Amino acid sequence: MRPDTPAETTPHASHTAEAERLERAAALYPEDAEQLLLQAAAHHEVAGARDRATALYDRLLALPAEQPVLVRALKAANLWEYGHEAEARAIVDGVRLAAPRAPEPWIIVAEALEAHDELESAHSVFTDATELLVGDSANPPREVRPLLFGRHRVRRLLGADHDARDELADRLHEAPVPLDELHDPNRLWSLGSDNPAELRAEIDRLRAELGTYRAALSRPFPVAVLHWPEDELTQLLAAHPALTTEYPSHEAHLAAVESSLRELAASGTPHLGTVSATLPSYEAFAASEATPPTETSLLPLYATTLAARGRAKAWPPAKEGACWCGAGRAYGVCHGV
Q1: In Å, what is the CA distance from 89 to each residue of 93, 154, 320?
Q2: DSSP E strands: which ranges in the chain?
Q3: What torsion do the CA atoms of 34, 38, 39, 41 make, to the nearest 10 degrees?
Q4: Structural domain boundaries of the chain?
Q5: 9-185 has which CATH code?
Q6: What is the pLDDT of residues 153-207, one digit of tens each?
Q7: Ramachandran region, residue 83 (left: φ > 0; alpha: ψ -120 to 50; beta: rest)
Q8: What are phi and psi of 102, to 5 degrees?
Q9: d(C-alpha 98, C-alpha 83), whole Å
């Protein structure tokens, strides 16, 4: 959610200008308003305009937000940074009670607690989150692994002995420097040393840690296949009948999506996913490209744009997970058969 460019190298005015640009874009593209306003709030935070960021979070919470728990978590972290500790703590408690099934809200509130030396509380949040989202899995999805790494870091600061989850975090950690070294509370002392060997060792550790973060940031967004929910496809064909040749029926469309994804997987294409289309969003995109909506070459470009905005859902789902088609059945007994 945070811009990649650190505040030290980008003037605050630039972040403010970018935030205002994103706010204008949100007014033009209401279907993408949540994502755009979250990015705008992040720029306001980096620029130090935390009151403006809070105003955007409040605006999002007044709407039917897709990710209200995430918005509340971001608001809590932001409030804490400019003196509203009591309100931030109340929101953190609410996020914990909501028990979200996505890792991001847990990570945000746990790291906010950790940043303010609430290590026991941060450890409790990380532990609750790993119990819920990792469970007994020996190979949890990549997106939940930061919970294990964060829990390991906080336990290292607390001086706690390794437990089974710490060992799992060690095994999943991909950087050449072990987690115990990266999370050593005494590491920072070496930065004040006059010993060149100690300084060199610390620089090597920091480079390894930075390499891990850069690898995560550079991970490509999914190669996405466009999925039209049934009601949206009905509206699309009513508005643009020429696309009937592309979409003869909803059943045929769903079969084509699954078939395309399997062919891509068989060819070795990584990072596959689906993106759900809506008619207003598609028409707005066509207008922005100055292309008629009936132009079929626009459809994959629209899917790529949605994926780049973070709207893709990874494919394939777990066999017992919900099918991507939205039918409400498990993938293993739906399109995963």
Answers
A1: 6, 19, 36
A2: 223-227, 272-276, 313-314
A3: 140
A4: 9-185, 221-331
A5: 1.25.40.10
A6: 999 888 889 999 999 999 998 877 788 877 877 664 555 566 777 777 777 777 7
A7: left
A8: -105, 145
A9: 24
**The two three-digit tokens of residue 308, written as one number:** 């780049």
Q: pLDDT per residue over 266-276, tens digit each?
A: 888 888 999 99
Query: Is pLDDT of 19 > 60?
Result: yes
Give the CA angle between residues 154, 159, 160 to the nearest 5°: 80
* Mean pLDDT (whole number) for 237-263: 94
Tell the burial category of 13 from Cβ atoms under 10 Å away from its Cβ (0-12, 13-18, 19+).
exposed
The arithmetic mean of pLDDT across residues 80-87, rounded, is 90
* Chain CA centroid to CA 85, Å: 25
Cα separation, 85 vs 91, in Å, equals 10
Both structure tokens of 93: 């408690």
First-to-last C-alpha distance (Å) of the chain? 36
Beta strands 272-276; 223-227: pairing state = parallel
Asked, as a colleague might, if the bond just before 141 is cis with ω within 30 of 0, I would say: no
Classified as helix, coil or strand, 169 is helix
pLDDT at 4 over 50: no
Given pLDDT bands bounded at 50, 70 and 90, which one contains residue 237?
very high
Measured CA to CA, the distance from residue 151 to residue 145 in angstroms comes to 10
Residue 18, pLDDT above cutoff 80: yes
Spatial distance between the Cα atoms of 163 and 308, rounded to a whole number of angstroms:
38
